[in-house]
Model the fold of this input.
Amino acid sequence: MVEKIQQLLAEIDAFRVASRAEIEQFRVNYLGKKGVITSLFEEFKHVPVEAKKAVGQALNELKTKTREKLDKMNANFEENDEPRERVDLSKPGFPARPGSRHPLSLVRNEILDIFARMGFSVSEGPEIEDDWHNFSALNFPEEHPARDMQDTFFIRKSPDILLHTHTSSVQVRDMENHSLPLRLVTPGRVFRNEAISARAHCIFHQIEALYIDKDVSFADLRQTLDFFAREFFGPETRVRLRPSFFPFTEPSAEMDVSCSLCGGKGCNVCKGTGWLEIMGCGLVDPNVLDLNGIDKEIYSGFALGMGVERVAMLKHGIRDLRLFFENDVRFLEQFTAAGF
Ligand code: DAH
Done:
């Protein structure tokens, strides 16, 4: 009998199954009520007393091994035979949430559109510039503080290669590449080594405009500024110019608009003054025309440059410039919801 048990052990050990039905078959054959092992236990009753110990041990071993084998086969099947995911092709899909334009892009496009209506075409220039285009050709004196390491991100020194600190550098490229008269508006990203705060960032956006023709006067500049301010901030907006200085314009001015948030009465955004500064402007300095090979006896022009974040903040009552760069959907979403 021990021999028979040994044979069965080998048989069970070598057993291989290919399906759950075969595992069940195995269980019934060996461990079922009428199974081989069960009937061996029946036979055990008739085993002579002196053989009982050896046969009993072998029989118990057979039963344990068979159980183990059964558990192992079941476990293997559970691992390998995971129920396949059912795909219900008739289910509706997930709704696609449409993206929206960034508020800075919306404001930039609106400004470009207003200038397009006045006959300005769009020009663009590189963000990486040399000293000539960013400073020298714009009449910056050699020792001007804006050339200082503190403001400018230099990529290389002597000859200087830098990240342009203003879109005015594109004025120079425009004068090189376009024939006169020219009337161009330039959006761009600019870089300055400044501490990041609610009102300043080391990367921001500007829009520059340049108009050069015969007989361009300050009155043309003034008309352009008035038109822009009313179109962009609303028909009630008033404009004021304050004398200022820029190396590339003469005379130079800074332009304020009446605060669109309080209607000019004074609030914490305009610091109680009722006015907000939005851009620098002026008549192109004759030196700049000279430096760029334009006859200053025949031609004159005006230029202006504004910060896009600045005007976007004023228009939409945004109090922290950093919000534009964080890309928090809760912030960005508001510009879609409002239908901008
Ligand atoms: N480039 C100046 C700046 O970044 C802004 C500016 C002032 C641009 C006067 C102009 C201008 O075109 O005429 O601060």
About this structure: Residues 264 and 274 are 4 Å apart (CA to CA). The pocket of 3,4-dihydroxyphenylalanine is lined by residues 166, 168, 208, 246, 249, 280-282, 303-305 (CB under 6 Å).
